[in-house]
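Homework help board

Subject: predicted structure for assignment chain

Our instructor gave us this sequence and asked us to write out the predicted structure in token form, then describe one feature. I got the tokens but I'm not sure how to describe them. Can anyone check?
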Amino acid sequence: MAKGRDNTPHIGIYGRRNLGKSSLINVLAGQEIAIVSDQPGTTTDPVKKSLEIIGFGPVILIDTAGIDDSGDLGNKRIGKTIDSVKLIDLALLIVGENRWGKFERDLVSKFNAVDVPYIIVCNKSDIELPSQQFLKRTIKETGQTPHIFSSLTKEGYEDLITLIINTIPDKSRRLPTLIGDIINYGDIVLLITPIDVEAPEGRLILPQVQTIRDILDNDAIAVVLKEREVDTFLTRSAIKPALAITDSQIFVKADASIPEDIPLTSFSIVLARMKGNFAAYMDGTPSISKLKDGDRVLLLESCTHHISCDDIGRIKIPRWITAFTGKKLEFDVVAGLDKSTRDITDYSLVIQCGGCMITRKQLHNRLQSAIEAHVPVTNYGMAIAYVQGIYNRAIAPFTGEVKDQTDYL
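My token output:
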């Protein structure tokens, strides 16, 4: 599937073929974005659509292929449908024709496995209402009473919207603060933003934009400059920022320019704390020092982009880690939300990017298999800070203490 869109809640539509999943998504979106047909299996790959729910905000709907698809191609479609469960914040399980069996139980099991709340929607109520026996069975197995709905007459539409709003987890609807808990009203935050070959033409990268907005939202002051202007700014202005945030790639230069009494971290680490499993990152980062000859490292990018000759994930991080460890290592890179072709236990370390283009839940689910397999995980910015010897300073704004880097080993 395509990448996610920041923290916008994702709602997946699931169920057997020809039960009106596409019709439901069209009703919710208010336009025909999914093909509707009496022919089972019309939906092949997951289809995504952004919409605004009045009284709630933007969401992304995902229409999936029928869970009861058949044949070799059908099995591939089912695989994509199952994979999408890890990307969503809420599932709508569409049922009908008084059928509740293995397909529905398997989906419910998948939802529960990744802690995704779900709503059972009994569609096509204009054709057939659910029987009492069917209702008793679903209530007994799930604890839920199916919501009666009709895509044709829109029966139950308003109640379904209310149910969706009330069921989406709070953590999926709120955008956590990046640094609002470590800065105060009126604080000056210095943002060091190099303009290099990886910077988008005429724009800042998303983490930089998000940080500026977070600073403004918390009634503080953002000062944005390139790395070459840091020394001049500090000398001429005599301003002492409450915090400095740099691009991870110039950590060493920023460390030299920013006085020790000014907290310093990176955009990637700020984003990692908000979106990633920060505790797991802190546990896993020191494992860089334990890498051995022949170990394999997996780098996870959460977006796809043009690869430059000095790409951070494919070139710089492998080069820096190799130089730091002095070991002969193997590096694999997986972009977007694709899966690695290797088993996660083949890796001695997983390094995740900041994840600015995916939701918090998508990022956590992406790392979960490594964490469960006890494979150390870290983040681009934290890994860079570690191999450049400034890890303790880079995480101190969030941990409240500065250690010698050897204390982590």
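Reply (TA_rk): Your tokens look well-formed. For the description, you could write something like this. The first strand starts at residue 10 and ends at 15. That's the kind of observation they're looking for.
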